[in-house]
Amino acid sequence: MVRAVVCRELGPPESLTLDDIPRAPLAPGQVLVAIHAAGLNFPDVLMVAGDYQLKPPLPFTPGMEAAGEVIEVSGVDGVRVGDRVMVKARFGCFADEIVVTPEQLLPLPSTFDFAQGATFLAAHGTAWHALHDRAQIKPGEVLLVHGAGGGVGLAAVELGKVFGAIVIACASSEEKLNVARQRGADHVILYGREPFKDTAKRITGGRGADVVFDPVGGAVFEESLRCIAWGARLLVIGFTGGVGNAKTNLVLIKGASVLGVRAGEAARHDPALGAARVEALTKLAEEGRISPHISHRLPLEDYAKAMRLLTERKAIGRVVLEMR
To answer: Quick one: DSSP state of residue 31?
Structure first.
């Protein structure tokens, strides 16, 4: 039997249960991984509530990324028992074990522990796709990062510096901004101290940001249109603060572009793009230039508490469930 968090009815995190379920048998071409850590992402919460674009059939186990050790293989080349791996999935990772295909596995960077490996691919992959593939950010450009205290926001701060940008980090507390500074932010803005658009324009001498990285949405997206430079690119990462409405006259006046960002879907449409992303990120991780910031490590049985840390904005960076 395997411990797993199970969603039998859509609803809040408290509607989930931790159950013992039968171990899934391996089919030829599959791999069994003992999960040591699973990362939490906001889409996990949305999926459990039925508010995400992907709606797995009930019952299902949430969790889209993990890290652990290979414990069994069936007719697979290139993967061996004992390999330390990162797991990329659409769901199924909040469990002691998971059955996957070799294409869902990547070697764990030597610089990472399991918790870091379990929180790397989704956030840093999204940030890379947004900044490198979609915005094509250039050295010296100004990058305004919203939600910079979150996992994907901090990843954008880190990668913004890798790409040579001037990074302005926005967050809701001084504690979150301090972490953003540690990750390389050149300037920080505390939401609520004054309108962020005014601070961003002052920092840039009235010019505005070249690239806006927005996982928040809502009013944040709408106000971002008022502090952008000519030719700016606004990256729509998510909508934790609600769905924003674009003022199309402001997009027109600034010659701006609004770009949707779906890193996973982009890789499914273009596997070569996804492979290049993973190769670049793994190299940066091995060089010690990027890594996830983890504020909370909780046991699997605290899955609801862990998910609430995301919804209540209490996490800084990433939250991890640890199985062993």
So the answer is: E
